[in-house]
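Sat 14:20. Reprocessing the chain from the morning session after the first attempt stalled halfway. Input below, unchanged.
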Amino acid sequence: MFHPSTFTDRGGHPADRVARRHPTGDVGAALLIRSASPDDEPAIARLSALDEHMLPRGERLIGELGGRIVAALDVRSGDAVADPFVPTTGIVELLGLRAAQVRR
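Finished this time. Tokens:
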């Protein structure tokens, strides 16, 4: 276990440094929810690998945070994949709400 003072001369806790460098670490970053296109498949595959879960093929919604795809949801099943290194719980919930609207 490290003492907190271990990180002070290096710019704080390592997780804090990652959050500052991460493009989606900005709490004011714009969230965009949209339908997925075929061009989004590489990003969805990346999320699936990170999340260790594959989405079914079909209509999908995308959650972009600060211009970067961080979550995807299958409209029919409600299955989702998300970047585990970004706080995406609320984004996935919003994708689920939007999916319910799309299914109506």
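The chain has three helices and four strands.
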